[in-house]
Amino acid sequence: MDSNGYSDPYGSFALRIAIGEKDRYQSNDHEKIKELEHFIDRHPNTFIPGYFSYDRHIFFFVPKILLDITEKTVIIHAADPNSVVQKIEETPIKYQKVNFQGKIQPCMSRDDYRNAFNALRKHILRGDIYEVNLCQEFYAENASLDPFAAYIELNAISPTPFSCFFKYDDISLISASPERFLYHNHNTIISQPIKGTAPRGKTPYEDKAIVEKLKNSPKEQSENIMIVDLVRNDLTASAQPGTVTVNELLGVYSFKQVHQLISTVSCKAKSGIDSTNIIANTFPPGSMTGAPKLRAMELIGKYEKSKRGIYSGSIGYFEGKGKFDFNVVIRTLIYNTKENYLSFHVGGAVTAQSIEEDEYNECLLKASAIRQMLSKNAIT
């Protein structure tokens, strides 16, 4: 997990590497999330990384080794730190190439996207929903690449504050996520939904003009504010009465590939509420579903052409009973070495003001870093 030097008042490490497995918890049923709380209880004051997928899979593990790395120090948490140092020193440093082989193709054709967009917009105009996040998958079958080399390359092209590489069994998650889903520490809960995207300019002058346009766009503002209201509502189930607060509304944050509108919503947690209950009360992330959330999710299932899987879920960690931090799984490449299947999803909000061609182009913009990394390293 790499914060890439971004200033964050809530984050607790710059770069953390978790290696090996002492114990794991996994389930294909979010209804059994209480079992995860028992797993956390069995490992008190322990860093436990993992993820919640949009499609109900849960996976967490207790690592054997932790490395905390800053610009000047490396701290090793392990049963025998000296042996870890020795293994590091004995490991030759060599540059691994991505060596991508495969043909990227959309699961949803251009006409499919247009039809789904128009159908969802009709639902909005009828009043069924106010906003919905329409996503599409790009994939390659019989694909191959070096997943960790792909992560290093993607992280260089698109450094983000919630970047991570997560490999377990046959699955590699290669993520350049800029978005925090949920943070909890000292009874404070923080959510930072992203809604509103614009490309970077080619010159400083153009870049500044794009930021001003993004800040003042009624359509982008409405997207963000509707999700802020959804997040405020989600947090009330976990909050002490009267403590839900919007700390920042429509903040502009600039990343290497895009500008984003990010809002920050917080509350004080109810006394005695479990960490997993806080997550269950807010999952999946509102920025990836829509409002009202349940109806939006029903329509997502109806009109999208593929399952989201880990996409729109959350990768992060628990650290003891009272602390956790999770991202939103976006701008993420998923590679299954057993199936030789590679995929990534991109999406965008549909509102009454949305224009189909603009939303489709925004999807391509969000996919640009991954596509750039794959095309740059393709073997023909």
Strand content: 25-35%
Secondary-structure class: alpha+beta
Q: Helical percent range? A: 25-40%
**What is the residue-averaged pLDDT?**
94
The counted number of beta strands is: 20
Apparent shape: globular
Pattern of helices and strands: EEHEEEEHEHEHEEEEEHHEEHEHEEEEHH
Distance between the termini: 32 Å
The number of distinct helices, counting runs of at least 4 residues, comes to 10
Low-confidence stretches: none
Largest sheet: 10 strands, antiparallel
Question: In words, what does this structure look like?
Answer:
With 380 residues, this protein is of the alpha+beta class. It has ten helices and 20 strands. The strands form three sheets. Strands 2, 3, 4, 11, 12, 13, 14, 15, 17 and 18 form a ten-stranded antiparallel sheet that branches. It is globular. The model has no long low-confidence stretch (mean pLDDT 94).
Features:
single chain; 380 residues; alpha+beta; ten-stranded antiparallel beta sheet; seven-stranded antiparallel beta sheet; 20 strands; 31% helix
